[in-house]
């Protein structure tokens, strides 16, 4: 993901200038340096933040490093686009919410790039305008082939399902109050499926099915059922040409980067514009914390087999906005 972001921002020159790259894995740092030879190269992200001449940072490191890096960005007053999840725990995310609030301005955007996808935005805008009536049920599907994802059930909840949880909040404009969860693995462990059920504050229902395995292809989908109609999103197929005289064939994207390349570009351009205007308004630290709170409840539900209440400090108590309507 770091390399993908790097190439996007490099293509936005001269509006963005890449002045430094950092990666604790030397071959990755060298690969980034080869793409941006004018940039300083660091092998420690925190060292980069302390010494590089930067106005903003993109964090696409391992999930367990996000908290320390984003915390350092906030302390230095650097704008940051952080890949999801914001952190690995509700406590760490809440700490970043409070640190950002103490700084007196919005500095952090979480990389929930599906909000910038044209198809998802159309469904969001249609549903929130009342075009199909009152939302009743939102079902989402998220499959990954084993070649790209070897997560266990807990990792599927904490990482893969983060997008789906965030989208549910975004679509309904409410917090999630109750969560249930179940998982099933094949005997050889190669295939894992997790089923998460959600209920919003007003009772809107959500179902998230996320899984990985050798029998799966990368596939995402969504169905929104409302009182006056329904909205459906599936994985768009890509057109492939085998030869001059062949008929174009349709296939599913191989991975999330292919499927959401346009969304990543739209997100990054929007964030860059917001940074230039000193007015970051994308998915917030509170959105990251809310997703973690739901994921924590889902993992508790998986352990206990029973529904779990989502424990989350209300946005108003932290000076944060609620999910955008």
Structure description:
With 325 residues, the chain is an alpha/beta fold. The protein has 2 domains: 2-83, 3-Layer(aba) Sandwich (Rossmann fold); 118-257 and 285-318, Dihydrodipicolinate Reductase, domain 2. It is built from 11 helices and 14 strands. The longest helix is centred in the C-terminal third of the chain and has 20 residues, at 285-304. The chain is globular and about 55 Å long. 36% of the residues are buried.
Could you provide a short overview of the structure?
The protein is of the alpha/beta class and 325 residues long.
The name of the CATH topology of the largest domain is: Dihydrodipicolinate Reductase, domain 2
Q: In the residues, how many domains can be counted? A: 2
The CATH architecture designation of the largest domain is: 2-Layer Sandwich
**Shape, please?**
globular
**H/E element string?**
HEHEHEHEHEHEHHEEEEEEEHHHE
How far the N terminus sits from the C terminus, by CA atoms, comes to 29 Å
Q: Roughly what fraction of the amino acids lie in strands? A: 15-25%
User: Roughly what is the average pLDDT, rounded to an integer?
Assistant: 91
The number of distinct helices, counting runs of at least 4 residues, comes to 11
Q: Residue ranges: pLDDT <50 for 5 or more in a row?
A: none
- Give the helix/strand class: alpha/beta
Structure summary, number of beta strands: 14
Strand order of the largest sheet: 11-10-6-9-8-7-14
Major sheet characteristics: 7 strands, mixed
Classified by CATH, the class of the largest domain is: Alpha Beta
- The CATH homologous superfamily of the largest domain corresponds to Dihydrodipicolinate Reductase, domain 2
Rg computed from alpha carbons, rounded to a whole number of angstroms: 20 Å
**Percent of residues in helices:** 25-40%
């Amino acid at each position: 993901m770091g390399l993908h972001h790097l190439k996007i921002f490099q293509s936005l020159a001269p509006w963005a200038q890449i002045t430094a790259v950092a990666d604790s894995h030397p071959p990755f740092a060298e690969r980034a340096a080869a793409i941006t030879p004018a940039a300083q190269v660091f092998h420690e992200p925190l060292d980069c933040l302390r010494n590089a001449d930067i106005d903003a940072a993109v964090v696409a490191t391992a999930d367990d490093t996000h908290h320390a890096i984003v915390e350092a960005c906030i302390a230095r007053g650097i704008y940051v686009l952080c890949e999801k999840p914001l952190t690995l725990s509700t406590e760490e995310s809440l700490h970043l919410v409070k640190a950002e609030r103490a700084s007196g301005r919005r500095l952090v955007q979480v990389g929930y790039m599906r909000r910038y996808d044209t198809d998802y935005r159309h469904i969001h805008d249609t549903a929130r305008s009342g075009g199909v009536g009152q939302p009743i049920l939102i079902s989402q599907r998220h499959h990954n082939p084993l070649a790209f994802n070897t997560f266990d059930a807990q990792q599927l909840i904490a990482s893969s399902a983060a997008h789906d949880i965030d989208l549910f909040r975004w679509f309904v404009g409410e917090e999630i109050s109750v969560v249930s969860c179940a998982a099933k693995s094949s005997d050889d462990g190669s295939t894992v499926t997790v089923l998460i059920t959600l209920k919003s504050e007003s009772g809107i229902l959500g179902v998230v099915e996320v899984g990985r395995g050798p029998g799966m292809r990368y596939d995402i989908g969504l169905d929104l059922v409302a009182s006056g109609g329904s909205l459906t999103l599936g994985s768009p197929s890509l057109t492939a040409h085998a030869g001059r005289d062949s008929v174009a064939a349709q296939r599913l994207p191989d991975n999330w980067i292919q499927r959401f390349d346009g969304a990543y570009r739209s997100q990054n351009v929007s964030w860059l514009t917001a940074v230039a205007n000193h007015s970051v308004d994308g998915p917030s630290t509170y959105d990251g914390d809310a997703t973690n709170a739901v994921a924590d409840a889902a993992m508790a539900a998986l352990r206990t087999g029973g529904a779990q209440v989502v424990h989350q400090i209300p946005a108003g108590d932290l000076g944060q906005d609620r999910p955008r309507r």
